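Design a sequence for this backbone.
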């Protein structure tokens, strides 16, 4: 079990920021009480029950997995939580954009995995520094439930060659897997309890195994970036300003949804999804399952 990363008035110390720069990740970080995480889980599962057969244009799982902050107010609310942003500010600085939010769920006793990969491989930003993922557990993330494994220091590599496997049990968009053999002893499990968070660099090599436990493994994965980075592959990209200012204007800023799956937010969702596909699908041989990892 890892010691909790200490926060001072909700913020990372200079020493822990330096550790993030060296290791490429930090965990576990307490960002909310377990009871609050349980309440968010209940809210999510109520939304799942209410909208599963509600005639949405795309399957509900697509909206949960791809840009959920465009159509689900709860997703944006979590991403804009000041407690989370206070931690992220120590890594990215005072100007923070929300680029994507996804509910990442592994059902109990399923074979779904996430192969070892680097997030930035297909996002169209190149090997940038100013992007980080905050991963918040709404249920226990353990080796049994398929928690993430990190490879310490691997973010110091450039974007490495990946192979698209399109494995049906792989939850990644293209089943992308890094063409490097990762020894078992080099994998560091990111064990989190509900309400705890990890943060990791966009070049971090990471993945996760199947959920062999009796409970769903539910997490919220939020991709934050500095306004200084820019889309290099797709013609345009979108984000929500969470804190500070967006002076460069490299992203089209949009307003978060007022209610779940409104007509306006569904139209914007399709617009963003189509635009970002220009980066995600570059070089792909077949259709992908989704956008993010």
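Sequence:
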């Amino acid at each position: 079990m890892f010691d909790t990363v200490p926060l001072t008035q909700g913020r990372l110390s200079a020493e822990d920021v330096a550790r993030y720069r060296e290791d490429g990740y930090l965990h576990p970080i307490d960002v909310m009480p377990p009871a609050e995480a349980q309440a968010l889980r209940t809210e999510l599962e109520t939304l799942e029950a209410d909208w599963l057969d509600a005639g949405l244009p795309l399957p509900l799982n697509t909206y949960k997995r791809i840009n959920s902050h465009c159509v689900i107010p709860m997703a944006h609310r979590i991403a804009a939580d000041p407690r989370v942003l206070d931690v992220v500010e120590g890594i990215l600085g005072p100007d923070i954009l929300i680029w994507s939010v996804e509910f990442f769920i592994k059902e109990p006793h399923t074979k779904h995995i996430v192969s070892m990969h680097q997030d930035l491989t297909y996002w169209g930003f190149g090997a940038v520094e100013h992007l980080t993922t905050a991963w918040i557990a709404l249920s226990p993330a353990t080796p049994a439930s398929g928690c993430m494994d990190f490879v310490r220091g691997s973010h110091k590599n450039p974007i490495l060659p990946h192979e698209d496997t399109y494995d049906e049990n792989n939850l990644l968009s293209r089943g992308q897997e890094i063409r490097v053999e990762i020894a078992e002893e080099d994998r560091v499990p990111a064990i989190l309890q509900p309400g705890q968070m990890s943060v990791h660099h966009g070049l971090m090599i990471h993945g996760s195994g199947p959920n062999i436990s009796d409970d769903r493994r539910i997490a919220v994965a939020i991709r934050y970036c500095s306004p200084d980075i820019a889309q290099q592959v797709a013609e345009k990209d979108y984000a929500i300003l969470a804190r500070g200012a967006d002076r460069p204007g490299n992203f089209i800023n949009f307003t978060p949804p007022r209610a779940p799956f409104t007509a306006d937010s569904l139209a914007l969702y399709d617009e963003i999804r189509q635009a970002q596909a220009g980066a995600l699908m570059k070089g792909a041989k077949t259709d992908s399952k989704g956008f993010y990892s």
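Residues 287-293 have pLDDT under 50 and may be disordered.
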